[in-house]
Amino acid sequence: MSVTHRYREAWEGFWNEATGEPGEVFWDAEPALTAGPHLAIYEPYVDAPALPLLDLGCGNGTQTRFLADRFPRVVGVDLSSAAIKLAERREKHESELRRTRAERREKASGGSGPTPGAHKAGGPVPSGEIRFRQLDAVDPEAVARLHGELGDCNVYMRGVLHQSDPKDRRPLAEAIAVLIGERGRAFVVELAEAAGPRLARLAQAEPGPPAKLLPVFRHGIVPGAVPDSEVADLVRAAGLSVLASGELPLTTTEYEENGSRIELPSIWLIVGRGA
Asked: Which of 61, 64, 131, 268 gives 20 to 30 Å between its CA and that of 82?
């Protein structure tokens, strides 16, 4: 099984149109407002932090780069090859900037070696710490091959189920089960049911939808309505346990008329094997 041709082409068209500019994509808010709050919840449940971390549905890699500051090995995967190319291009640019900053710090220190903290956020990333690859996550053979290569993984997945066709949601949950194996933990965050009416109001607003939503609609990527209870049901049907759950606002890159960020309600789950 794999995703439909229509669905794949929709994402390829969307990411081919994107320029890679920060904040260009509706849901691509800066990590301090997205992956940052998620990690504060997720990390205490990660029993094996040395495992590779998969950013499942990484898009252009904005959150992946942030995750690489907290985990020793991060792999961003996405259905769209165009998204992966964009992520790789941005990572190459960011890596060059980090290298330049590190060289300047070393020069300023008199050539006495790397300055303290050079390998933290903003410093050079060790080779192999972050990489990207294309993956159809509802193709069980492709998922099994990735698990065979990496072993058990921790998984971060933000907003992928609700953007998937209904028939692909259970295979996607089953993919998470394969990827985390026996030792991994997954953080799954999805738009809540209550986000549906909010998005509908935005789409019907005068003088039209927010500009950053237009490419989403134009390419036929309309967020689906996934009942809140269905998310937990899907992961349990895949043989996983829900270890914790809750609600958080999902920050976007668009703004209300009063200048505040548009936020959408979301639910989050931490899932794994056993209690």
From this structure: 268
